[in-house]
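R.M. (postdoc): so does anyone remember the format we settled on? I'll just put the structure tokens first.
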């Protein structure tokens, strides 16, 4: 970059921070046209009739879309990788903040909104998946959703799978960038642990692969803050083996009916992470019923990589307190277990995994990591608070297994050795309105405060995949690394320092940025 454009960009950053729009739409579109080597680049401006529906199409958390939300100046929908290159070059040239969007599931809506003028680079049309069964690998473009990925793998093999998230409409672009975990975590680790190559468009508009980007950048994009280093075009992933038959079960217990309820949950904390790696038992805790019938329900939701006979033996030995019986168990193919775990209808077809229409909701989420079991008194306090909220859920996902075997510095995702389980807190509501939002968000903050005593400390660790803006922001291009360090160390522990070093090297002007991106100074 020459000195003039560096100067120009700094001037533009400065005017953004003063709230001045300095984008000339005509000139920007002209630039795209000029840069386009492969014909027309699909781009929408607010005057287009399709604009609003495209903008909102994949925003999962609709809390962020209101009548006063700042609209993007442009939405670019690349249909060719060269369109991504052109977008980066032109956005940089014109000093426009670029938000990158793959599946749109960001918990804080960061891929779709901004409080300064911006554009959205939406990758949903770059979603090809090619599965190589012989080599047990696949190339997955960022706009592919997890359901599509699982479907394409199953199309070619009943005994290959990939250890990524549970929700079929989550995007590969954002989720592998932040780690990505699901039912195979204990056996195979994170999605990011199983990325073996990638294609990225860097700040100069070049397409790099693992070899040409170098190991530092390749390290950073596997779990570092998404959107900090470049636009991921595609991932090459290592597929993993699953048996032709797996077994699932769901056992529900009610606090109201069961005097042993809390000690059972407590017992789960002691054993779930110690069970064989082939067995995952999540515990989801939520209030159910209304008024005086209201109580707390614990759902133990499980996937076992093996048949039900073996599972019963394992459970008898490892977690007899749950009382699993053969009538509770259902044997399935792995791909059917994906539908089941995602809560999709049992009589549905595998094609349901290709449905890109997602449910919408108002939500606030947070996360924690637990290193010693939460005492009964802590659990009982949690039940009391859960009862006060409309639709909260606390989902506990056991770790250990493969997660303990991978060094904390292997990739930026650091929540490993010694972690017993992760908790996701989520509260969902259905009415628009800032008062309504505030009430639920306040409840969430109070709940998080209650849990502080019982979870990881200094730092209180958090999962960037469950992005939480309460942990702090790096608001603009000049935020320094110390400001970032509050959320930085929570998400990345000591890996944060190396992420800042990589950022300085590959994007010193901080072109790729969002509210929680790695700062360059
Ligand atoms: C209903 C629901 C279920 C979920 N279930 C799971 C789960 O089971 N396991 C799990 O690990 N997580 C889960 N998540 C969290 C999810 O992994 C993250 O929200 C993830 O960031 C979503 O990726 P996305 O592409 O859909 O989102 P986006 O909103 O498109 O992107 C998220 C972030 O990544 C950046 N980004 C997106 N694409 C790219 C790209 N190509 N290059 C560079 N940066 C990019 C965005 O700018 C944004 O900052 C869930 C989230 C929701 C809402
Ligand atoms: C992108 O365009 C190039 C050049 O025209 C072409 O070779 C390539 O196949 C295109 N890629 C896609 C995904 O369409
Ligand atoms: C498997 O990988 C090898 C080496 O990279 C390659 O030559 C071969 O074509 C691949 N197999 C398939 C089916 O693509
Ligand atoms: C699946 O079952 C539900 C509930 O029993 C029913 O409403 C639905 O029509 C069924 N769908 C199919 C595709 O059979
Ligand atoms: C796709 O999913 C949406 C949301 O879950 C649902 O309303 C719709 O009926 C589904 N479409 C098909 C074709 O199954
Ligand atoms: C995990 O922690 C244990 C106990 O502190 C230690 O012995 C082991 O070396 C650690 N493993 C890794 C991969 O860091
Ligand atoms: C941008 O960051 C600088 C330095 O951290 C800070 O002083 C300034 O207030 C920030 N501007 C905005 C708009 O947040």
């Amino acid at each position: 970059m020459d000195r003039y454009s560096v100067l120009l960009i700094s001037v533009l950053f400065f005017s953004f921070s003063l709230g001045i729009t300095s984008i000339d739409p005509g000139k920007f579109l002209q630039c795209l046209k000029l840069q386009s080597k492969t014909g027309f680049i699909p781009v929408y401006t607010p005057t287009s009739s399709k604009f609003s529906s495209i903008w909102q199409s994949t925003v999962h958390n609709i809390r962020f879309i209101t009548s006063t939300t700042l609209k993007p100046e442009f939405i670019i929908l690349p249909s060719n990788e060269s369109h991504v290159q052109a977008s980066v070059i032109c956005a940089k040239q014109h000093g426009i903040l670029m938000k990158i969007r793959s599946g749109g599931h960001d918990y804080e809506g960061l891929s779709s909104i901004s409080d300064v003028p911006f554009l959205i680079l939406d990758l949903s049309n770059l979603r090809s998946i090619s599965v190589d069964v012989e080599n047990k690998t696949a190339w997955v473009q960022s706009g592919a959703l997890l359901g599509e990925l699982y479907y394409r793998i199953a199309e070619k093999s009943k005994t290959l799978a990939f250890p990524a998230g549970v929700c079929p409409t989550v995007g590969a672009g954002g989720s592998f960038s932040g780690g990505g975990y699901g039912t195979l975590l204990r056996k195979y680790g994170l999605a990011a642990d199983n990325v073996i190559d990638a294609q990225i468009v860097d700040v100069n508009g070049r397409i790099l692969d693992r070899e040409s980007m170098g190991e530092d950048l390749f390290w950073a994009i596997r779990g570092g803050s998404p959107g900090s280093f470049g636009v991921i075009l595609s991932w090459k992933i290592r597929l993993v083996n699953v048996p032709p038959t797996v077994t699932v079960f769901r056992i529900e217990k009610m606090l109201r009916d069961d005097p042993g309820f809390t000690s059972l949950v407590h017992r789960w904390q002691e054993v779930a992470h110690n069970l064989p790696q082939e067995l995952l038992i999540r515990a989801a805790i939520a209030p159910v019923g209304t008024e005086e019938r209201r109580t707390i329900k614990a759902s133990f939701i499980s996937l076992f990589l093996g048949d039900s006979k073996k599972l019963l033996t394992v459970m008898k030995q490892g977690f007899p307190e749950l009382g699993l019986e053969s009538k509770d168990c259902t044997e399935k193919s792995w791909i059917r277990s994906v539908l089941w775990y995602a809560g999709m209808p049992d009589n549905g077809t595998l094609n349901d995994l290709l449905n890109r229409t997602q449910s919408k909701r108002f939500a606030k989420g947070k996360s924690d990591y637990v290193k010693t079991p939460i005492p009964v008194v802590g659990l009982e306090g949690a039940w009391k608070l859960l009862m006060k909220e409309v639709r909260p859920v606390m989902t506990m996902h056991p770790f250990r297994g493969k997660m303990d075997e991978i060094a904390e510095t292997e990739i930026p995702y650091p929540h490993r050795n010694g972690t017993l389980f992760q908790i996701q807190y989520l509260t969902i509501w259905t009415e628009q309105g800032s008062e309504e939002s505030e009430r639920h968000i306040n409840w969430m903050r109070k709940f998080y405060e209650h849990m502080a005593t019982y979870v990881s400390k200094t730092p209180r660790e958090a999962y960037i995949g469950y992005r939480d803006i309460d942990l702090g922001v790096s608001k603009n291009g000049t935020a320094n690394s110390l400001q970032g360090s509050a959320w930085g160390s929570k998400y990345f522990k000591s890996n944060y320092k190396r992420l800042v070093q990589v950022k300085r090297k590959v994007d010193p002007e901080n072109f790729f940025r969002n509210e929680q991106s790695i700062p360059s100074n």
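R.M.: ...and that's the designed sequence above, right after the tokens. Also worth knowing: The CA atoms of residues 67 and 130 lie 41 Å apart. The two ends are 18 Å apart (CA to CA).
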